[in-house]
Amino acid sequence: MGFEREHWNSNVGFILASVGSAVGIGNVWRFPYLVGTNGGGAFLFPYVVILTTFGLALMVLELAVGRYYQTSIIGCLTRIKKRFKWAGVFTVIVTFVVTSYYLVILGWILSYVFIMIFEPTLGFDSFSISFYPVAAFFAVVGINYLIIRKGISGGIEKINKVGVILLVCILVPLTVYAVFLPGSETGIMFYLWPDFEKIFEPPIWAAAFGQAFFSLSIGFGTLVAYGSYLRSKGSLVRASSAIVAFDTIIAFIAGLMIFSFLFSFGMEPDQGASLVFKVMPSIFSQIEFGAVIAVLFFALLFIAGITSSVSLFQVPISAMEDNVGMRRGRAVLVVTGLVTLIGIFSALSYSPIKLAVGGMPVFDFMDTMFGTYGITISAIIFVTIVSWFMDKRSLLEHIQQGSRIKIPYMLIYFARFVLPTAIAVTIILSIIKL
Ligand code: PFF
């Protein structure tokens, strides 16, 4: 609205930023805990199937729509038809809430970097009834603010260039170390060998859908925003394949690391969300140089998380800029302020105040309602609107740009019928079974 739109400096910068967005706490925290609670190897099969079919297709669509309209998700859907504005607003709200609790976990992680140095014996239970989580939440909000206020190429692109490389440099040696620990083979078997009876259970597929979208940052409008900062006409199919491949490989390696550690220390894999915060520190405390490894581990998580959180912020910020006409500086300030206000509820649920909804900590409630259900609904709505109401030919031509692979016309029908139905059915089945 009147201001010159920001753009990525280079295509590599764009791909790294999207990789940075995709590779996050989801890969190192959420993925292993879901594998652990969903029967180990049984989760991997649906997960990889979804990533490489639904995930890839949706990623291409989101990036293409953003690049085509050069505006935020609200702007894009409004341009398709005015009456779809609400759908864009819905996605922005869901993403906004996810951002607020994502920062809470990021705060826990930042705290743990220091706890592992100064107070390694402090367990998660003692930590979560202190006010550390709340203080750390504020610190993380501040760090994000400092990055995003520098803009797309000056802030987000730069932090990702460093972050992604650093992440690989920490993850790979840690994994090699873990895999060579005695007893790690049982963990690797649990992780890789599917329990065939469980493979077709709907809750596992629903969890895999949720995780695939969460991990690839799909359904949040983030990729629409990142696509809208693209000037180049490079191949989106190639870029998306690279991002999906990278994200899958990192999650896979992180799983190898976590399950090797867990099993070689005789720990149970199905401990849910607290896996990384309760179990890992107790393992590190038993290892030689455990303190160093622990700090590296939580630093790894923190770097992965910060490159993702800056992308989440971009959704409400770009909506404020493009749809409300705010300047970036003001939009950044307003969004950061609002995210803090909402996030504080999740932060307080793991503090002496123990804020809860129907007995469930607010944080867990938000992750289920928004992180799993909200986001899948938002993805269904997005894909339905784009595939039914956007001009098919221009959409396909746009996706085709710069790509040597011929995009099959089928993609549109896949997006119209298969994508939304499959997502809806698995979600409904899993709710019924709950
Ligand atoms: N993909 C991130 C992760 O795996 O941790 C989470 C995420 C980041 C989701 C950004 C959505 C998003 F827009």
Brief characterization of the structure:
With 434 residues, this protein is mainly alpha-helical. It contains 18 helices and 2 strands. A hairpin with a 2-residue loop joins strand 1 and strand 2.
Keywords:
18 helices, globular, mainly alpha, two-stranded antiparallel sheet, binds 4-fluoro-L-phenylalanine, Hydantoin permease, 434 residues
How does this model look, in words?
With 434 residues, the protein is mainly alpha-helical. It has one domain: Hydantoin permease, CATH 1.10.4160.10. It is 77% helix and 1% strand. The protein contains 18 helices and two strands. It has helices at 11-22, 25-37, 41-69, 73-80, 85-118, 124-128, 132-148, 152-179, 184-192, 202-216, 222-228, 236-264, 275-284, 290-324, 328-349, 362-389, 392-400, 410-433, and strands at residues 356-357, 360-361. The chain has a two-stranded antiparallel sheet with strand order 1-2. Strand 1 and strand 2 form a beta hairpin. Helix 2 packs antiparallel against helix 10. The longest helix is centred in the last third of the chain and has 35 residues, at 290-324. The model has no long low-confidence stretch (mean pLDDT 92). The protein binds 4-fluoro-L-phenylalanine. 4-fluoro-L-phenylalanine (PFF) binds next to helix 1, helix 2, helix 10 and helix 14. The site of 4-fluoro-L-phenylalanine (PFF) has 14 residues, from helix 1, helix 2, helix 10 and helix 14.
